[in-house]
Design goal:
- With 403 residues, the chain is of the alpha+beta class.
- It has 14 helices and 16 strands.
- The strands form 5 sheets. Strands 1-10-11-12-9-15 form a 6-stranded antiparallel beta sheet, sandwiched between helices.
- A hairpin with a 2-residue loop joins strand 3 and strand 4.
- The longest helix is centred in the last third of the chain and has 20 residues.
């Protein structure tokens, strides 16, 4: 592949398997795909026909966990919303697996969390745990895009990410392998996306921390999240360096003949709307795609205005302050939020869950099992680490039952 040659040209060696070799280098990116190249969710992988037929399993769709039911400091069930009404489910033990944004919200609505935060929304504190909702982490990223020559476009496969890169930023105190990048051979499903390649780089070990708060004690009101992206200068420095690196990749001999108009890009609200697979979005993008193929000047205008929003990569590379402003304004998340019910020892003032069992500290009958218990974000996408957490805690529960 051209991107393999480009990265090798810049001194990044092929390392084969990212999960077996932990040095810097490029590798074919592993995905949880089946033979038909469809993503395989945990529901598809674990909730097989046989599992769904078990008499001790009930799957309830269109149901929302509102609050936990507590008797003192023991959780004895959960209050759920079905349709327009609420009802209670009693249980010997409750496991909250609502994710790093919603799990802390469930705890706080139930009176478990920082006293000041609970009092702010009128929830009576039952058990004060200052760490609930804090330590929110993500992998902030930045992207460059380029127009793909016709004969270099991806045609007959849904899978559009084939190659990734692990590298070290060199920023003081950030360690080895703190950065990750990948080349997307098409940027979206629609006709415009097929014509655009994007290289995306993100901070795989971010330093900034945010928080989750309740907007209201009403379970119908979603919590608010302050990601505090780039709240640490090291994250800004690393993403600015990532832009420079990606520009060098686009300018290599291996890629410069296949990609033109390398441009800073961002995941804007309009791009998100176009990401929905609808007939309307196809009809919106198809004429522009034909025009930029046929008319070079229109292609340049499209890249300069629609993709780069008036910014030019050469200007960013020449002006460090402009580059950092671009990073601050254009960084986006990778859907890897975690950390808001972190594991830790009882003497850690921000710990929420016990390391070996994922039990909520100071509360009986309650565990949290999802990405929110991660003390720090791993240098990886969260899919497999979350599955590992679930498998580990499942084994601990079985061991307790058999003891």
């Amino acid at each position: 592949m051209a991107t393999e040659r480009a990265l090798t040209e810049l001194g990044f060696p092929p390392i084969g398997d990212q999960n077996a070799v932990f040095t810097d280098g490029h590798f074919p990116i592993p995905l949880s795909n089946n033979a038909g190249e469809h993503r395989v969710s945990t529901a598809m992988a674990y909730l097989t026909t046989e599992v769904r037929a078990r008499p001790n399993l009930t799957i309830m769709s269109n149901t929302q966990a509102a609050t936990l039911i507590l008797e003192g400091r023991r959780v004895v069930g959960v209050r759920i919303r079905e349709g327009s009404g609420f009802r209670e489910l009693r249980a010997r033990e409750v496991i909250v697996s609502a994710g790093a944004l919603q799990s802390p919200a469930v705890l706080m609505r139930s009176g478990i969390g920082p006293a000041t935060e609970l009092n702010r929304v009128g929830v009576e504190p039952v058990h004060v745990l200052d760490g609930v909702g804090k330590n929110l982490q993500e992998h902030p990223g930045i992207a460059l895009s380029g127009y793909i020559r016709r004969d270099a476009r991806l045609k007959h496969t849904r899978r559009h990410v084939h190659l990734a890169l692990r590298y070290s930023s060199g920023v003081e105190g950030c360690g080895q392998g703190d950065m990750f990048a990948m080349m997307a051979t098409k940027s979206a499903w629609h006709p415009l996306g097929v014509r655009l390649a994007s290289m995306i780089a993100w901070v795989n070990k971010a330093e900034a921390r945010g928080y989750v708060q309740l907007a209201s004690k009403d379970p119908l009101q979603p919590p608010t999240a302050e990601l505090n992206f780039l709240g640490d200068y090291r994250d800004i420095e690393r993403l600015a360096g990532a832009v420079k690196l990606m520009a060098r990749v686009f300018m290599t001999d291996a890629l410069s003949s296949l990609l033109s108009h390398p441009s800073p890009s961002s995941y804007s609200g309009f791009a998100k709307k176009l990401g929905r697979q609808t007939v309307k979005n196809f009809l919106l993008t198809a004429p522009t795609a034909v025009i930029i193929d046929a008319i070079p000047y229109a292609r340049k205008l499209f890249m300069d205005i629609a993709v780069a929003n008036g910014m030019r990569i050469d200007q960013l590379l020449e002006d460090d302050e402009a580059l950092k402003d671009y990073v601050r304004n254009s960084a986006f998340g990778q859907w890897h939020v975690c950390g808001t019910c972190k594991l830790g020892s009882p003497d850690d003032p921000e710990a929420v869950t016990e390391p070996s069992s994922a039990r909520v500290i100071g509360v009986e009958g309650l565990r949290v099992v999802d990405a929110s218990i991660m003390p720090t974000a791993p240098r990886a996408n969260l899919n497999i680490p979350v599955i590992m957490i679930a498998e580990k805690v499942s084994a601990a529960i079985l061991a307790e039952e058999l003891a």
